[in-house]
């Protein structure tokens, strides 16, 4: 995650977005937000060295429509931690239908997994059992991530100073295996 990104919280501490440093400074100067946490590295400007924000909270409640977690290639890869669910590699990833479309397999969270090209070719138009391949974890729809997209949420979890402000979802804290 780039060092110039700032976690923006609503007035009720619900994550709203991740914005760039320029937007964060503008919100502060306009009096629309306040700093909850600063970075360890200061911000150098033409007027000197200043503390750089890491987490901001809006001073008023921002009303937004409830976002939906969209099924997309990027979201499936993020859910599976950019790792092939058959062999564990992180190279040349694509999406695989666990139960092939021709066999009635739907295009849903429960039937899509991250898969490397090699495993995708090996599996072909078969089920994992037919191809004698085993899934690392059973695919399922992630729980709703408020306002942040799934890939952004997973990246944000990597920043120690942001973790206290993000909702906790157990499914992203440890790997689940298929028995």
Explain this structure:
The chain has helices spanning 21-29, 73-79, 117-123, 150-156, 160-163, and strands at 5-9, 15-20, 33-38, 43-45, 48-50, 53-58, 93-97, 112-116. A hairpin with a 5-residue loop joins strand 1 (5-9) and strand 2 (15-20). It has two domains: 1-66 and 149-165, no CATH class; 70-143, DNA Binding (I), subunit A, CATH 1.10.30. Helix content is 19%, strand content 22%. Strands 2-1-6-3 form a four-stranded mixed sheet, with helices on one face. The protein has five helices and eight strands, in the order ββαββββαββααα. It is elongated. With 179 residues, it is α+β, with helices and mostly antiparallel strands.
Q: How many discrete structural domains?
A: 2
The percentage helix is: 10-25%
Could you tell me the mean pLDDT?
Answer: 86
Residue share in β-strands: 15-25%
Rg, rounded, reads 20 Å
Give the H and E element order.
EEHEEEEHEEHHH
Count of DSSP-assigned helices: 5
Features of the shown structure:
179 residues; 2 domains; DNA Binding (I), subunit A; two-stranded antiparallel sheet; four-stranded mixed beta sheet; elongated; alpha+beta; 8 strands
In short:
With 179 residues, the protein is of the alpha+beta class. It has five helices and eight strands; from the N terminus they run ββαββββαββααα. A four-stranded mixed sheet has the order 2-1-6-3, with helices on one face. Strands 4-5 form a two-stranded antiparallel ribbon. The chain has a two-stranded antiparallel ribbon with strand order 7-8.
């Amino acid at each position: 995650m780039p060092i110039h990104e700032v976690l923006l919280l609503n007035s009720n501490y619900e994550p709203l977005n991740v914005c760039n440093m320029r937007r964060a400074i503008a919100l502060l100067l306009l009096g629309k937000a306040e700093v909850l946490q600063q970075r360890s590295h200061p911000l150098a400007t033409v007027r000197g060295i200043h503390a750089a924000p890491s987490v901001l909270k809006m001073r008023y409640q921002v009303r937004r429509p409830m976002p939906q977690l969209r099924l997309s290639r990027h979201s499936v890869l993020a859910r599976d931690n950019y790792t092939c669910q058959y062999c564990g590699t992180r190279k040349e990833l694509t999406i695989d239908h666990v139960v092939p479309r021709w066999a009635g397999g739907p295009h849903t969270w429960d039937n899509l997994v991250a898969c490397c090209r090699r495993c995708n070719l090996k599996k072909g138009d078969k089920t994992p059992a037919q191809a004698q391949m085993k899934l690392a974890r059973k695919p399922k729809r992630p729980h709703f991530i408020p306002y942040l997209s799934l890939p952004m949420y997973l990246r944000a979890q990597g920043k120690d100073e942001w973790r206290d402000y993000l909702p906790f979802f157990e499914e992203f804290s440890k790997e689940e295996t298929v028995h």
